[in-house]
């Protein structure tokens, strides 16, 4: 049963009858019900849980690889067990408010989102370990983290828009942890329902507000990653709560949305590989900003596409859910562009040694105007070298999906290069990614969950 109807009010039949009524106020604000302008397809879905990032077939495959006792999957499994967030002694620190950004008007004197950031990662990592080991201690500990947050936290807040980054990044991490743990016998129906209610009221409400209003700025004011993390959270919560309307909203937004996270704005242009491979690569909306955020776009897009694809496997009559395949595999082309520009030819697994494999002068770039019509409008004329060489987990998702799941014979050479360089890829708690928010923007542990021979 759906937790609640978020996008389409239950009074839609009445509103259709009384055609003069065009909108309805609900907890997420005013929802436009002008159906003449809403030509987007709305469908119902099958949910064979877990069905967000991974399904039971994935866990069966990974368990088999772990049982072999060697190899990259096994190595990453042992690395996961060793992180600070995977320890059974991990003690969460729930807050009444998650504050990211200007603290004016909040109950706190400084930002505190790092508590949610770390606790969400701990819940997710221990949920993974429960699914892979059948050790109920991991499940009990992870659920305790989720229950404490659901019982304590009432809102995400700041005096600026930055709290929407927390609603996105921490939203989809918490939701994916809950999705993995939902069939644990020790999680009572009442506590699980309370957790789902919390995810909807505290996170999904913010996700929806951002994607529809963009903090009362222009729809393209915020960079692509702001959209992508909130899209990821809203989709994950929609799957968690079996809310078809939420899933439909993200499906439609991905293709026809208004912000910089939708395909039409996420991809600025396509180019030929300057190294002469014949590949087509795609410049993203953040390629000219800095590479810390350009790689975030690639990593979060990988997570978003993986969640949609897992749901697609049980809903293949809705091909639009295969975000990976959209626009002739343009997500792969985008990741190829980002990987090409950031990869070095060193032999280390942190991308810190050697020389870049393409020069800035050889890298193709279409001029891009950011903040059009605003006081800070400026034109980007080349791929940004700021933070060039940044690494993030996420390349394993892209490479293994296109090369192994889809079986494509080419088109992923730079993604493959990065995946192999970082393997085992790791995630939050891996020293290569540091301890700041960038290590937690994506779920990580792609070698463990995505790698195929």
Automatic annotation (TrEMBL):
The keyword Heme does not apply. Keywords: Lyase, Signal. Residues 104-259 form the Alginate lyase domain. The keyword Signal applies. SUPFAM superfamilies: Chondroitin AC/alginate lyase. InterPro entries: Alginate_lyase_dom, Chondroitin_lyas. GO terms for cellular component: periplasmic space. Pfam families: Alginate_lyase. One of its GO terms (molecular function) is lyase activity. This is Alginate lyase.
């Amino acid at each position: 049963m759906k937790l609640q109807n978020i996008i389409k009010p239950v009074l839609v039949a009445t509103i259709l009858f009384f055609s003069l009524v065009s909108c309805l106020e609900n907890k997420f604000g005013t929802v436009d019900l002008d159906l003449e302008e809403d030509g987007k397809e709305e469908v119902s879905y099958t949910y064979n849980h877990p069905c967000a990032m991974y399904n039971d077939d994935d866990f069966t495959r990974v368990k088999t690889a772990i049982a072999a006792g060697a190899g990259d999957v096994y190595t990453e499994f042992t690395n996961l067990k060793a992180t600070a967030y995977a320890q059974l002694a991990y003690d969460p620190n729930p807050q009444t408010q998650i504050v990211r950004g200007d603290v004016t008007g909040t109950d706190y004197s400084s930002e505190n989102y790092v508590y949610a950031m770390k606790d969400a990662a701990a819940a997710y990592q221990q949920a993974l370990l429960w699914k892979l080991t059948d050790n109920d201690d991991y499940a009990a500990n992870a659920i305790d983290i989720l229950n404490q947050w659901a019982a304590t936290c009432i809102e995400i807040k700041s005096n600026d828009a930055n709290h929407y980054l927390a609603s996105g990044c921490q939203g989809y991490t918490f939701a994916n942890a809950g999705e993995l743990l939902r069939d644990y016998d020790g999680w009572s129906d009442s506590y699980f329902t309370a957790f789902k209610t919390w995810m909807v009221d505290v996170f999904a409400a913010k996700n929806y507000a951002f994607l529809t209003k963009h903090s009362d700025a222009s729809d393209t004011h915020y960079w692509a990653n702001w959209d992508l993390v909130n899209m990821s959270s809203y989709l994950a919560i929609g799957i968690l709560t079996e809310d078809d309307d939420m899933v439909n909203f993200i499906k439609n937004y991905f293709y026809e949305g208004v912000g910089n996270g939708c395909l039409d704005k996420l991809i600025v242009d396509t180019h030929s590989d300057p190294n002469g491979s014949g590949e087509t690569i795609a410049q993203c909306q953040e390629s000219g900003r800095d590479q810390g955020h350009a790689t975030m776009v690639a990593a979060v897009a990988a997570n978003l596409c993986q969640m949609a694809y897992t749901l697609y496997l049980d809903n293949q009559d809705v091909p639009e859910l295969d975000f990976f395949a959209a626009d002739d595999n343009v997500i792969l082309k985008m990741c190829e562009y980002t990987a090409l520009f950031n990869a070095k030819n060193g032999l280390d697994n942190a991308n810190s040694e050697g020389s870049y494999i393409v020069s800035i002068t050889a890298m193709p770039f279409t001029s891009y105007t950011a903040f059009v019509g605003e006081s800070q409008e400026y034109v980007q004329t080349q791929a940004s070298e700021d933070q060039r060489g940044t690494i993030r987990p996420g390349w394993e998702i892209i490479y293994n999906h296109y090369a192994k799941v889809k079986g494509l014979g080419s088109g992923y050479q730079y993604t493959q290069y990065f995946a192999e360089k970082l393997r085992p890829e790791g995630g939050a708690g891996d020293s290569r990614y540091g301890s700041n928010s960038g290590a937690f923007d994506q779920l990580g542990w792609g070698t463990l969950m995505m790698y195929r021979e």
